[in-house]
Design a protein that fits this description.
This protein is an alpha/beta fold and about 375 residues long. The chain is built from 9 helices and 18 strands.
């Protein structure tokens, strides 16, 4: 086997998501398995170069994992011709500027979403990358979750017949930070720092709906801030200026309707932190992060509404679990592998900056819908 080393500038990996999912569970996991077998006698060896603003955090992270390369000078890292890929997991407000610099330096770019704070900037990034001839990808990790992979199998196999509706529930209670530590960083709740559940989650819902059920053609949303005051990492109170809950209705090109509730102010009474129920003429399914249950029309019971007597049926017991039928790897790692193969072998890859711009567009129109109290069409984006 021939080792092919690919140097990756990783910006923002001192943050929770960048560290846990992208550095540890993706890039370092690839190194632990001996690299990525490209199937042509080559093994791709990812070499991370940690980038960030906090020198002490970068040094501590590098020492912890036996890494030798880190820098607080992004321009110097981008000027290094041996670095082929730039990855961004910074706060949203800093992302577009850094991606623009990376594209100008001729780097292939892979980035967390949202790719920018507005549609024009996100679409501009896609055009810059196209004109520069660099490869580009956007993290769309939910597509690689075992539950949604199983759901995609059902769709491809014609299980549902005509899909009528999709209902999604996402969220959990994020502690305010006073008497219990918050599970999310405080910037998530400050609009001035790029926070808010709409800009965070609507890009996810766009690609899930687009990939599984078809393009979103219209959106109606109600957005609110249920918890107006929170406490930051230093225990200081601050005003929550960003939305922490959003209730959206999405019209799909097929005619189906999707309803998705997203909230950081809801207590969980479901099997998983996110669940999608899909109802079709021939069957229904409920998919979560890992599990997926189905009910075919041939086994659908006939409930009768009668509020005067207790329910005599255990409705959850009437559904059948979809088997794994395979071993599922970490979804972030699985997409990293596809992007790396795209860069090195030029294999097809369509989760690009244009796909990322669609997510930003849906978030922008969702916020506009809520502010204006009306439905908004979602124009199709092109380069």
């Amino acid at each position: 086997m021939t080792r092919r080393t690919v140097r990756i500038a990783m910006n923002g990996v001192t943050g929770r998501m960048g560290y846990r999912q992208h550095l540890v569970r993706s890039i370092l996991a690839l190194r632990e398995q001996g690299g990525l077998d490209l199937g042509d006698g080559q093994v791709l060896w990812p070499e991370p170069v940690l980038v960030g603003r906090r020198e002490h955090a970068l040094r501590e992270l590098a020492d912890r994992h036996g890494l030798t390369e880190w820098s607080t000078d992004l321009d110097a890292v981008l000027a290094d011709e041996t670095t082929e890929i730039y990855f961004d997991a910074q706060v949203t407000s800093a992302r577009a500027y850094a991606l623009t610099r990376a594209i100008a330096a001729g780097k292939h770019v892979y980035t967390e979403k949202p790719t920018a704070t507005d549609t024009a900037a996100a679409l501009g990034l896609a055009r810059l990358a196209r004109d520069a001839g660099v490869k580009h990808g956007v993290v769309q990790d939910k597509l690689f979750l075992p539950g949604l992979v199983k759901l995609k199998r059902l769709i491809d196999g014609g299980f549902f017949g005509e899909i009528l509706s999709v209902r999604g529930e996402f969220g959990y209670w994020v502690f305010e930070g006073d008497w219990q530590e918050a599970q999310r960083p405080s910037w998530n709740y400050r609009a001035e720092d790029g926070g808010g559940i709409v800009v965070d989650m609507f890009p996810h819902w766009e690609y899930v709906l687009h990939e599984l059920f078809g393009r979103v053609t219209a959106v109606t949303a109600h957005v609110t801030t249920h918890v107006p005051q929170r406490w930051d990492e230093d225990g200081k109170p601050y005003a929550a200026t960003a939305d922490d809950a959003a209730y959206g209705i999405f019209q799909l090109a097929s005619g189906a309707v999707a309803q998705i509730n997203s909230s950081w102010a809801v207590r969980v009474h479901r099997d998983e932190l996110v669940e999608f129920q899909v109802d079709g003429t021939h069957g229904s399914a409920v998919a979560g992060l890992r599990g997926c249950r189905v009910q075919h029309r041939s086994t659908t019971p006939k409930p009768v509404w009668n509020p005067d007597i207790p329910a005599t049926e255990a409705f959850r017991d009437q559904w059948q679990e979809v088997p794994d039928n395979t071993v599922f790897d970490n979804g972030f790692k699985a997409q990293w592998e596809l992007f790396l193969r795209h860069v090195v072998l030029d294999e097809p890859y369509h989760w690009d900056l244009l796909a990322g711009a669609r997510g930003v567009q849906l978030a922008e129109l969702g916020l506009k819908s809520s502010a204006e109290g009306r439905r908004h069409d979602v124009p199709e984006l092109t380069l």
